[in-house]
Design brief:
With 283 residues, this protein is mainly alpha-helical. The chain has 3 domains: 2-97, Helix Hairpins (Orthogonal Bundle), CATH 1.10.287; 149-234, MazG-like (Helix Hairpins, Orthogonal Bundle); 237-279. The chain is built from 13 helices and no strands. It is extended, with a radius of gyration of 26 Å. The chain starts with a helix and ends with a helix.
Length: 283
C-alpha cells in the first residue's frame, strides 16, 4: 500500500506534491493543537459553529472587496475549521465516525456521480449536458434519485431569507418550474408592487394591518429576487454592495460634519444632503 502511494506521489507534478505536503502540515498541526492546547482541546462542533459562520462572512466580505490577500487569509481560516470538525469526528468520544479522508473521498464520489456528462453514469453510459441549465436540471434529478423527497429539500432552513429565496427559485427552475421570459417576471413585479401600493397607500395615515402588509411586502421582495435571477444579478451581492456604499457615504457625511465643527443631531436634512451629494463623487 505504501509503495503504491509513493508511486502516485512521484508521478504528480511538483506543485501538487507541495500542496499535499501543505495539507499534511495543517493536519499535523491540528493534531498537535487538539492534544496540547487547552483551548483547542475544549472545542466541540457546537462551540465552533458560530465561529465558522463568522469566518464565512469574513471571507464573503473579502470577496466583495476583491481583496486577494485577505481572501487567501480567510480561506485558510475556513479550511482550519473544516479540518477541526473532521478531527473532532475522528475521536473516540464522538464515536470515531469519520475523518478528513472520509470527508474528501465522500465529496469526490458525489462530484463524480453528479457529473455523469463528464464521468458517465452508474452504468457507464454517457450523459449529454452541454449547457449550464441542463447540468443544473440533471443535478436536481440525481438528488431526487439519491433520496431527496423534494427538489426544495436541499435548501437549508437556516439560510438568510434573501439567499433562501434565490436558492428556492433556482431549484424550482432546475425542476422546470419557471417563467419563460423575463418580461413576464417584470410584469409580476409590477403586479405585486401595485397590489402593495393599493392596499397600503403611503399618502394616507390610515392604520394598516401589519401582518397582511408584511405578507404582501414579502411577495414584492420575492418577485424582485426572481427578476434579479432572470437578469443574472445576485440579489444578496447587490444588496450588500449597496450596504457598503451607504456606509461609506454616511461615514463621509460624519467626517465632513466633524471637520466643520458640526454634529448630525443639530443639522437639518438639507445641510446633510450637501455632504451626501459630495460623497457620491467618491463612492
Amino acid at each position: 500500500m505504501q509503495t503504491n502511494l509513493n508511486q502516485q506521489l512521484e508521478t504528480m507534478p511538483v506543485r501538487r506534491q507541495e500542496q499535499l505536503l501543505a495539507f499534511d502540515r495543517l493536519l499535523t498541526i491540528m493534531d498537535e493543537l487538539r492534544e496540547q492546547c487547552p483551548w483547542d482541546r475544549k472545542q466541540t462542533m457546537d462551540t465552533l459553529r458560530h465561529l465558522t459562520i463568522e469566518e464565512t462572512y469574513e471571507l464573503s466580505d473579502a470577496i466583495l472587496e476583491k481583496d486577494l490577500p485577505e481572501i487567501r487569509k480567510e480561506l485558510g481560516d475556513v479550511m482550519l475549521h473544516l479540518v477541526f470538525y473532521a478531527r473532532i469526528a475522528s475521536e473516540p468520544q464522538t464515536g470515531a465516525t469519520f475523518d478528513i479522508g472520509d470527508v474528501l473521498n465522500s465529496v469526490c464520489d458525489k462530484l463524480i456521480s453528479r457529473h455523469p456528462h463528464i464521468y458517465g453514469d452508474a452504468n457507464g453510459n454517457t450523459v449529454v449536458a452541454d449547457t449550464e441549465e441542463k447540468v443544473k436540471q440533471n443535478w436536481e434529478q440525481l438528488k431526487l434519485k439519491e433520496g431527496n423527497k423534494s427538489v426544495l429539500a436541499g435548501v437549508p432552513g437556516s439560510l438568510p431569507a434573501l439567499v433562501k429565496a434565490m436558492r428556492i427559485q433556482e431549484k424550482a427552475r432546475g425542476a422546470g418550474f419557471d417563467w419563460e421570459e423575463k418580461q413576464q417576471v417584470w410584469e409580476k413585479v409590477e403586479e405585486e408592487m401595485q397590489e402593495f401600493k393599493d392596499e397600503f397607500n403611503a399618502e394616507t395615515d390610515e392604520i394598516i394591518d401589519r401582518e397582511r402588509a408584511e405578507k404582501e411586502f414579502g411577495d414584492v421582495l420575492f418577485s424582485l429576487v426572481n427578476y434579479a435571477r432572470f437578469i443574472d444579478i445576485n440579489p444578496e451581492t447587490a444588496l450588500e454592495r449597496t450596504n457598503k456604499k451607504f456606509i461609506k457615504r454616511f461615514q463621509y457625511l460624519e467626517e465632513q460634519a466633524r471637520s466643520n465643527g458640526q454634529q448630525l443631531k443639530d443639522m437639518t436634512l438639507e445641510e446633510m444632503e450637501v455632504y451626501w451629494q459630495e460623497a457620491k463623487q467618491f463612492t
